[in-house]
């Protein structure tokens, strides 16, 4: 199972985490990627990845639109 759409994540601060969650009955973290400010990750949903969690200030671009995640730092 794969999806050709790409998700583009641009970190707007240091230490943004992109966390991949598994597909199937168990939903667990399987990968965490750390991005620093200005770094971009381009990712897809795959047979292994059903969801992504973004922690930290980032802009996230999808075919459904763009959303900004917020920072927990103050
Ligand atoms: N090995 C993972 C997979 O094929 C790599 C991956 C794809 C991933 N999309 C991701 C990791 C999104 C983190 C977030 O599913």
TrEMBL record:
Keywords: RNA-binding, Transcription, Transcription regulation. Signal peptide: none annotated. InterPro entries: MtrB, Trp_RNA-bd_attenuator-like_dom, Trp_RNA-bd_attenuator_dom. SUPFAM superfamilies: TRAP-like. This is Transcription attenuation protein MtrB. GO terms for biological process: DNA-templated transcription termination; regulation of DNA-templated transcription. Residues 3-70 form the Tryptophan RNA-binding attenuator protein domain. Oligomer of 11 identical subunits arranged in doughnut-like structure.
